[in-house]
Design brief:
Layout: E1 18-19, E2 29-30, H1 32-43
Antiparallel strand pairs: 1-2
Length: 57
Amino acid sequence: MPEAHRPRCGGPRGDRPARSRLTTDRDVLICTPCGTGAAVRGAHGQAPVSFDEWAVS
């Protein structure tokens, strides 16, 4: 079972996790708000938040 906390922001994961855009296989689960933020960054040509900036790295 995946971790219960969001690795990107440190809060609870929730029932509908998203998949991180940092990995090509997208196997790292993040919360929906963080996934939405990553999608918006991508739409604006910005890189995703790097792993070393995540709350749980």
